[in-house]
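Table S2 (continued). Query chain:
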Amino acid sequence: MAVEQRLPTESGEDRLIARYFAPLARHPGAFGLSDDAAILTPPEGHDVVLKADAIIGGVHFFPDDPAHAIGRKALRVNLSDLAAKGADPAGFLMSLALPEGVTDEWLDGFARGLEADVEHYRCPLMGGDTDRTPGPTMVAIAAFGLLPRGKMVRRTGAQPGDAILVTGTIGDATLGLRLRHDPGAANRWHLGDAFRDHLLRRYLLPSPRSAVAPAMRTHAAAAMDVSDGLVGDLAKLSQASLLSADIELARVPLSEAARRALAAEPALLDEMLTGGDDYEILCAMPPDHVTAFRSAAGALGVAVTEIGRFAGGEGTRFIDEDGKEKTFARASYSHF
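Corresponding output:
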């Protein structure tokens, strides 16, 4: 009598998804990742804002970065864009390409990092894909946000006379990347452990300004996040509204750690303003809205600084304390 053999119905990929990622699919429309697609139904009177971004090992993160930080960074760079549009996080899709030899320990750390941000930002996993790759790890995320219909803050919309504001501080992540490549720079810049660690954290794990999304859609006329450097991203924002911009260099917000590094090596300024990975919000705002926006953001622990004004014409100018225009060898980071 022949013995019936049954083929296994659950693949290694199925087990990986069930163990690490199904617990993150907390939206009912994700069906626990048991289907081929998900459903996201926006509340009546709302728009869905879509954003996709990927991070790749050796390009956006170091291969030896903690797995939990890689997962969180992949999600947070997308949430940063949603925040700049005034959208509240609603969910995300994730495609994960893993090289040979990835361990359960790495996957567990990656999933735990994502889980922490799924809870903190109320942004559940809705679905995605997992693949094997001969190359470095890649995490590609498509994030979804919600906001009242017609309220998305676009790059266009700035007017002459609008104030130019930026959240947080600029240049920390660029300096953190420098420290990863050159740990001895901490001594040359006279940084103690706390300042060094601050810069390293700012590169490793961005802080999207999701909390200020409601205030953005109430007060901002135009906005984008600063991911490729303040100089280049300001140029993009200005061009979108067909305006010029004047920035006072002395008003660009810097952390105390960045100020110490800059005092020791003044040439760092160009890199700090063009290097990217700040993930702060850059926005245009009517002057009579600035106080209310700053107050709303401050109540949420987000600092806001006015750094200049938009005007008619073309081009962006960064003016130093002597009234001279500063030029830059390159405007921003570019992959190509």
